[in-house]
Amino acid sequence: MAEDRAAPTFDLLWTAERAGKRGRRPSLSRETLVRVAIELADSEGIAAVTMHRLAALVGSKAMSLYRYIPSKDALLELMWDAAMADPPKLRSGRWRSKLTRWAAASFQRLEQHPWLIELAGSIQSVGPKWTDWLEAGLTAMTKLPLNASEKLAVLTVIDGHLRSAARLRFGVKATPQWAADFGRMLQRSAADDAYPTLGAMVRRGEFDAAGMSMEQMFDFGLERILDGIEAYSERR
Hints:
The protein has helices at 2-14, 30-44, 51-57, 62-65, 72-84, 95-112, 115-119, 128-140, 148-170, 176-190, 196-203, 214-235. It is mostly helical. Helix 2 (30-44) packs across helix 5, helix 6 (95-112) packs antiparallel against helix 8 (128-140) and helix 6 packs parallel to helix 9 (148-170). The two termini are 41 Å apart.
């Protein structure tokens, strides 16, 4: 059943929009609606994207939008794929450098469209832009002695790392309130026997020293992931 529901959206993602009848130019298009919806999500968040709000922005009625996009769920799928845009060109460098640039470019997409993080768990279809990114990532690993499943696993691990880092940087955890609460949590743990390791680190002043920035944390984690892939590849 889920596969049947996903099929129409898949067709929307992969099939070019048909032109209107000869002599008539449609006032709206699927591409226009997706573009306006992305702009709305960028400025006000994904929760602001509704068919009624979108209709108001394009000067139409909500029911009229369903001629172009069958549902809000389909709209979100189309927005997700369109917002990913094109992957970077990875023509030069070793596999490690290429994967680093691939991850950095993907992180930049999340920075430009933070709402993509919120949709990550609900997107079901596989669109052409997503496939372009997959192609670029696999091409970066052409010379690695890994099979297809292992290469997919590498991209999955890197994708998971960059999404976690993006949540910390752009999500609720990056707000001043979260930072303040984190400090209060450290103070509590220093006097709570339920957290012996964390408490000992706080008492030794290990969190008082200057730590890594979000960018440095992302780079550090990515480098360790690539270290592991390189070591595994060499053993193969």
